[in-house]
């Protein structure tokens, strides 16, 4: 879930927009009903403009580490004591 309990979408920039190494899965807060923003902003701060990305139905390829870190619950890491 996104900020204020909103839903998050998984998106990845399309082929040709960026090189393959930058085609990571970003987490983007889903805009409210009826809202059509001029750009979407991933949790990591990446701006994504209309037609640049594809919405995914699950993880495809590498996740954006910065988006994952921003979506993690606050407090000690879940794997802090994993050894």
Short description:
The chain has 83 residues and is mainly beta. Helix content is 8%, strand content 23%.
Structural class: mainly beta
Largest sheet: 3 strands, antiparallel
Shape: globular
Q: Considering DSSP H and I runs of 4 or more, what fraction of the residues is helical?
A: under 10%
Distance between the termini: 29 Å
Radius of gyration in whole Å, from Cα?
14 Å
The tally of beta strands, per DSSP, is 5
In total, the number of domains comes to 1
Total helical segments:
1
Beta-strand proportion = 15-25%
Can you tell me the residue ranges where pLDDT is under 50 for at least 5 consecutive residues?
Answer: none
The H-and-E topology, N to C, reads as: EEEEEH
| Average pLDDT metric | 82
The strand order across the widest sheet is 2-1-5
Give an overview in words.
This protein is mainly β and 83 residues long. It has one domain. The chain is 8% helix and 23% strand. It has 1 helix and 5 strands. It has one helix at residues 65-71; strands at 8-13, 25-29, 40-41, 47-48, 53-56. The strands form 2 sheets. Strands 2-1-5 form a 3-stranded antiparallel β-sheet. A hairpin with a 5-residue loop joins β3 and β4 (47-48). The mean pLDDT is 82.
């Amino acid at each position: 879930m996104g900020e204020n309990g909103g839903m998050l979408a998984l998106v990845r920039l399309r082929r040709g927009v960026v090189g393959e190494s930058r085609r990571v899965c970003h987490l983007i807060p889903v805009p409210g009903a009826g809202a059509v923003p001029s750009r979407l902003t991933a949790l990591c701060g990446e701006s994504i403009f209309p037609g640049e990305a594809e919405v995914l139905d699950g993880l495809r390829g590498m996740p954006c580490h910065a988006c994952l870190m921003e979506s993690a619950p606050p407090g000690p890491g879940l794997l802090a004591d994993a050894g």
